[in-house]
Design goal:
Two copies of one chain form a homodimer. Chain A has eight helices and nine strands. With 212 residues, the first copy, chain A, is of the alpha/beta class. Chain A folds into two domains: 78 residues, Arc Repressor Mutant, subunit A (Orthogonal Bundle); 113 residues, Rossmann fold (3-Layer(aba) Sandwich). In chain A, the strands form two sheets. A seven-stranded mixed beta sheet of chain A has the order 5-6-4-3-7-8-9. In chain A, helix 7 links the parallel strand 7 and strand 8. The interface between A and B is large, with 63 and 63 residues. Chain A binds a DNA duplex (24 and 24 nucleotides) through helix 3.
DNA sequence: TAGATTGTTAATCGATTAACAATC
DNA sequence: TAGATTGTTAATCGATTAACAATC
């Protein structure tokens, strides 16, 4: 894993999955190589930016020709964790939580949700896509036994902080947080937020401004 | 709406919902004013950044005292579109789409999803939280009749582009896109992406690096 | 060879952070 | 008044964009 010593900026990291997905389409199309201008055109970016991004991902191309699609796909899938699927636990079996449990697509992106947790007795024992809902009080025991490092929070904001504390106490090292609230964690526990209210705010504000 | 002439940077806009939510908690706590250092401490930001953000949102405070919570809440709710709920249509009644349809919480953030669409006959006619699933071919008719400007894409990436085209053709001006693919639209149609694969990529990569 | 595209170094732009005067 | 916090102007930092030589 010594090739992971390169740090990739967050803006770049967020664009890489789009490149990956475009390259897959190209490959299915029968293409074997691709150039920055091609990628840039499809994604409406500048070719300079694509070049820089691929460079910082460690991809190497050939002038005039571009990049070998298969090579870049391998590089990106390593970098994005697609080639090393990890188990995760999810807390909060509401609509969103169950949607994520039910969704099979995360596995090809390196994430395998193995079980859900909730405090609502009505939900306990239910099974979605082979994944059972357990009582939150079982979280630590199961996380330790399965040696799980990734957890997902899909609870309401009001309970997210205490759920986060349970996760930290259970040895979780990465939290994918869907609750619209800031979570405070030790340095060795990372948090990635999916804040739908923030995204919606951007949409509303921009729409308002474009109409004015 | 002339006070909307201020343009707010996207990083700032994404932090404002967190401030809003914190202020609500403070208010429920019985507080009437709040200072930047207080907000900063709770959200683990710098007080300078909070001050700048509030300033660009148009909030005015008093030295030594801080900001009047009720005033800031009003300012932010206007800016974030919370006080002016708009109708929206959703296309793609899979797990995620139904989770969003089912969720009642968006209304207090200014979004009211009134119906869903799909091409899968099995889903047509089903009703979630009073919201019916219609055939995609009815989209344009319904969007025009209800004069709807906002639409949500929760289809697989493979069909997102054609769905996007239908939306543009139907007079939609803002698209909340959950499909992990770039959508190309005219200047007067804005797109806000929620790309879970990108978010997951950041999580995986950071976890990998923190373990090394 | 000619010319398109890569790799790399420099310039620009915008967001964050710092500094400090104003003020309640 | 003293001191904490705001408002505002300046400095820094990092990401994007530009420029251009190297190369296939």
């Amino acid at each position: 894993m010594t090739d992971h010593l390169i740090t990739i900026s967050e803006p770049t990291l967020r664009r890489l999955p789009l490149y990956y997905q475009f390259l897959l389409r190209k490959k299915q199309n029968g293409d074997t190589s691709v150039s920055c201008p091609q990628i840039a055109q499809d994604l409406e970016l500048t070719s300079i930016q694509v070049r820089k991004d691929l460079q910082s991902a460690g991809a190497v191309g050939r002038p005039r020709v571009g990049y070998v699609i298969d090579e870049v796909l391998v590089t990106l899938s390593e970098l994005l964790g697609y080639s090393n699927t990890k188990d995760a636990l999810l807390v909060g079996a509401g609509n969103l939580g169950i949607a994520l449990l039910d969704y099979e697509g995360f596995e090809e992106h390196g994430l395998n949700i193995v079980a859900g947790f909730d405090v609502d007795e009505e939900k306990l024992g239910k099974v979605f896509q082979g994944k059972r809902i357990y009582d939150l009080s079982d979280f630590k025991r199961i996380a330790s036994r399965l040696n799980i490092k990734i957890a997902i929070i899909t609870t309401p904001a009001s309970s997210a902080k205490e759920v986060c504390d349970i996760m930290i106490d259970s040895g979780i090292k990465a939290i994918w947080n869907f609750a619209p609230i800031h979570l405070s964690t030790p340095d060795d526990v990372i948090v990635e937020n999916v804040n739908l209210t923030a995204s919606l705010a951007v949409l509303s504000n921009r729409l308002e401004r474009s109409i004015d």
